[in-house]
Design brief:
elongated; binds zinc ion; mainly beta; two-stranded antiparallel ribbon
Length: 175
């Protein structure tokens, strides 16, 4: 069921027959995935492209998958709505069992584990909620809607003198 595209598979299914022979057996899993519909509203994983770097280990309770899911997120800046593209990195630590607990562990079916829905869920959870394109982004209409970062504290002290005007003090006007 692995996609034929060289750019990335659309599923990540691992045969765990060998692993399950002995508790403590580990296997490194590295994969490039391209998953469709990796988006929540305006927030998405750039091109649906994700890199997965895991260690899968046979444990007494089942199979444990530990590692990292990486990609790039594309989310509109909360002030100016321009796309903000930044690295996405989510830690994975999930358990697969023959009799999974809904919402807590994932199934082992036909001696295989399907990491696709796990990767999908983690990637979506990792999308930033409301990023800014840069800390001092003023938004599309800074005069009408000034960003908080632009509200300067009111100062009692007079503004420092601009040295460029100093020369004017030496001028005299004898009309
Ligand atoms: Zn912005």
């Amino acid at each position: 069921m692995v996609g034929s595209s060289t750019s990335g598979a659309d599923r990540l299914v691992i045969d765990v027959v060998e692993l399950q022979r002995r508790t403590g057996t580990r296997r490194d899993v590295r994969a490039s995935l391209v998953l469709l519909d990796l988006e929540v509203g305006e927030r998405c994983v750039l091109d649906g492209r994700l890199g997965v770097d895991l260690v899968v280990e046979a444990a007494t309770e089942g199979i444990v998958a530990v590692g990292t899911v990486r990609g790039e997120s594309r989310v509109p800046c909360r002030r100016c709505l321009d796309d903000v593209i930044e690295p996405l990195e989510v830690e994975m630590r999930e358990i697969f069992e023959r009799h999974p607990t809904e919402g807590e562990t994932w199934p082992i079916e036909d001696e295989r584990i399907d990491l696709t829905p796990v990767v999908r869920e983690l990637a979506l959870l990792g999308l930033p909620l409301a990023p800014v394109c840069r800390e001092d982004c003023a938004g599309p209409e800074p005069d009408r809607f000034p960003a908080m970062a632009h509200v300067e504290p009111v100062e009692d002290a007079p503004a420092p003198r601009d040295e460029r005007w100093a020369a004017l003090d030496d001028l005299t006007f004898d009309d």
